[in-house]
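Dear Dr. H.,

I hope your travels went smoothly. While you were away I took the liberty of generating a structure for the chain from your last submission, since the lab meeting agenda had it listed for discussion. I wanted you to have the full record in hand beforehand rather than looking at slides cold. The sequence, exactly as received, is reproduced here:
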Amino acid sequence: MADIEERERTEAETTENTDNEVKALDNTDAKKPDLSKKSKTGDKSKKDNKTSTGLDNFKIRFPLRNQIIWFIVSLIVIIILFVYQTTLKDEKKELINQMELRGGAISKSFANSAMGVLTAAISTVMGDLGLTKLNEKVYENIDYFELGLSENAMNMLAQQDVIYAYIINPYNKILSHSDKNILPLSDFKFPPGLKSYKELYKTGDLVEPIIQRYKGEYVSPYDKEKKLGEIIDISFPLKLEQEKKSLKTYQGEVHIGMTPEGIIKVIQNAKGKLLNVAFLAVFLGIIGAYLLAFFVTSPIKKLVSAMHKVASGDLNQSVKIKRKDEIGMLATSFNFMTEGLREKERIKNTFNKFVSEEIANEVLSGEDKLKLGGEYKEVTMFFSDIRSFTSMSEKMEPHEIVSLLNEYLSLMTDIIIANKGVIDKYVGDEIMAVFGAPIKHDNDAELAVKSAVENIAALKQLNEKNKALGKKEIQIGIGINTGLVISGNMGSEKHMDYTVIGDNVNLASRLCDSAGKNGLYNILITESTFKLVKDKIIYKEVEPIKVKGKEKPIKIYEVYDMKNEEEV
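The corresponding predicted structure, in token form, is as follows:
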């Protein structure tokens, strides 16, 4: 590959001239002016800024709060009185309680009348069949049309807010239903959100109507249209004996469905009254706001004008408003805000010289953390490269190459960053990353190897997707080496890059060139990295290889996967 050959020539020169580069970097430090005094002055200035905000001696003589209160107190009192008198929540709750009481009475009456008819019919059928024990066959031989149970159920719809009424036996068969299309002995299934009385009843409790709420479809008793909304279901059991605290003779249950639609209409009428009150409050509020604006808009306009200029990029703005209230405090705060923005702009210009968030954070944490000219650090270098990319790209259109590279580089980069690595640069299809600079971690070598393993796994998924789409598959090689390098800011005073150089950087790059070739696996690490991660990886030691720039072959290891916690 052309870019690899060029990189090899550059790295060879780098290896030969490393000592000269170190001297040059040291000379750069020597030429730097002594900033110790300036640094101390700057620290003192920052300390003063932290302890003094410019508002220490600012006294509010006539608070803006007091200026506003007398305009709005009377409005608040009026609104509170009206809301108190027309408390919609309590009114709705009371109406719902009344509906539930009425529904409970209806369900009891419906159950008692039905049980009286059923008891006689059950006795007759059991005698005819010669049965001594009540079972499902008895219910199947009752003539429900003759009993008139369905007619009774339909009559329930005449009650206010009732939308359905039905009776079911212990075998989940309908005995009667207010819907004439549902015939007796039809199978019954409770709708979602609704349970049977027997399921909800707790032994020992009084046998009283049970109220449930669920959402379902119903025909409105007001406009006869089908609607979806809240349904209040009230159920009561059918029993052969009138036990007060038992369901031993349970023979089914009745259910009465009611809609709060009528109550909602009542509440809506009440809301209309409240709306009139709201309109009155708004009208009075407008008058109060107009009077208030007369006193406050003039200084606020000055602030708005200055803010517009700041938004346009002019940070040399300040406002002079001589008022001893919150608006005066706001103006003073604005002036200190613009001063802070100017300081942040200067810091931003410094950030533009860096490409990594970690590096920028390191600069902010202290001037002594990154020395201009570089310093020795032990890091783990990570290089990855696409195999046969030149020959692959010759068979692809430019836009296909760009799309392929962007997708691949984004996927690999996200994994490296997630493992606390720093992308140093992209060289064509090659990724150069550093683990341990500018911020060192206890497990940088492990994180670098973990990134490599996850890169290979992610690439496998990407290839499967691309293969299904008819796109090119990618194979890569990854080389990892741990050792001392020179890390620092390099470039010019106007623009600099944070990077690493040295023999250990070149060795990782050479290892990357060999990975995935000549029968070697895609991930290769040196002995220095191996010693730091050997207990946490699945690996194989292979024959030492000869790399450019090294007289003797170097020991290498293939890495296949990370061990899980149990294996470790």
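Two observations you may find useful: The longest strand covers residues 476-491. Confidence is low (pLDDT under 50) at residues 1-8, 10-55.

With kind regards,
E. W.
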